[in-house]
Amino acid sequence: MPIKTVSTTPFDDQKPGTSGLRKQVPTFQKPNYLENFIQATFNSLEGLQGKTLIVGGDGRYYTRPSIQTILKMAAANGVGKVLVGQGGILSTPAASCLIRKNEAIGGIVLSASHNPGGPEGDFGVKYNVSNGGPAPEKITNAIFENTKSISEYKITDTEDIDIDSLGSSDIEGMNVEIVDSVADYVALMEKLFDFGKIRQLLTSDFSMCMDSLHAVTGPYAKQIFEQALGAKAGTVTNGEPLEDFGG
């Protein structure tokens, strides 16, 4: 699985904001477009070698192939370990939780928030720093400067990783661990909120509906409301993340 150095040329529209780089899917599908931005991000990070990185997103269209590209590029750039949410799913707060818990250098979150998903919808890439929060302007500016002068990117020539099954694998000496997307976030919520009192409410005559709109909150809502808090089955509707959020 040799590491390849691929020649490339800059794109002039890769300036990220606090919510990262957001474009329509066909833009990200241009040859080298995603790779340029990921390499520019890696080039902007000091002390990346051997560190831990978190990767996941909201499940929208183009998330899964993007994760494979990021993993191969992370290995080629000397990252020590990557934790990936099972199935590529990680809400932004859950990614923040994992970054802090694992003392990671940061995380790459694939999300465009409420923007529509699908083959003609939007896609986004953002970098969160070691405190779990969005990259500050100093880093986003450094990423943008790198996008303007990039001439090559590094990537491993390897098969795709199974991101649907929990467990560990290896790419060029980099450990890849597929982790439960929900468990650590639920544990954090139990520390922040009084689950006992909320459970008393949800198991009384009180009823509610949580519509997750086929977006990333579905698995979290099911685990929190219907399992940890005892709400009746079916409280969470449209709880399966879909690549186009079901329209």
Strand content: 15-25%
Quick one: CATH superfamily of the largest domain? Alpha-D-Glucose-1,6-Bisphosphate, subunit A, domain 3
- CATH structural class of the largest domain: Alpha Beta
Helix content: 25-40%
- Pick out the low-confidence regions: none
Give the count of helical stretches: 8
Give the helices and strands as they follow along the chain. EEHHEHEHEEHEEEHHEHE
Q: Architecture of the largest domain, CATH level 2?
A: 3-Layer(aba) Sandwich
Largest sheet: 7 strands, mixed
- Fill in the CATH topology of the largest domain: Alpha-D-Glucose-1,6-Bisphosphate, Chain A, domain 3
> Which shape, going by the Cα principal axes?
globular
Q: First CA to last CA: what distance? A: 39 Å
Kindly provide the radius of gyration, computed on alpha-carbon positions and rounded to a whole number of angstroms: 19 Å
Mean pLDDT across the residues is: 96
Helix-and-strand structural type: alpha/beta
Q: How many domains make up the coordinates?
A: 2
The neighbouring-strand order within the major sheet is 2-6-5-3-4-9-8
The total beta strand count reads: 11
